């Protein structure tokens, strides 16, 4: 099980055929969503770095 996510986001938009950030099979409703605490947000060059931990 993952307890921390480090996500880098580029300032780009893609169409509907673009690849999604995360594909969690079986999670199709908001009630199934995993809650996160964002612990850090910073800029790395032109990208954004987000560090998040799973809420207990």
TrEMBL record:
It is an enzyme of class 1 (oxidoreductase). Its EC number is 1.1.1.193. The keyword Oxidoreductase applies. Residues 1-49 form the Bacterial bifunctional deaminase-reductase C-terminal domain. The keyword Oxidoreductase applies. GO terms for biological process: riboflavin biosynthetic process. GO terms for molecular function: 5-amino-6-(5-phosphoribosylamino)uracil reductase activity. It holds the Pfam family RibD_C. It comes from the Bacteria. This is Diaminohydroxyphosphoribosylaminopyrimidine deaminase. The lineage of its organism: Bacteria, Pseudomonadati, Pseudomonadota, Gammaproteobacteria, Vibrionales.
């Amino acid at each position: 099980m993952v307890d921390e996510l480090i996500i880098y986001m580029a300032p780009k938009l893609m169409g509907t055929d673009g690849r999604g950030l995360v594909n969690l099979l079986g999670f199709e409703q908001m009630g199934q969503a995993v809650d996160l605490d964002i612990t850090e947000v910073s800029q790395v060059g032109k990208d954004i770095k987000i560090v998040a931990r799973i809420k207990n």
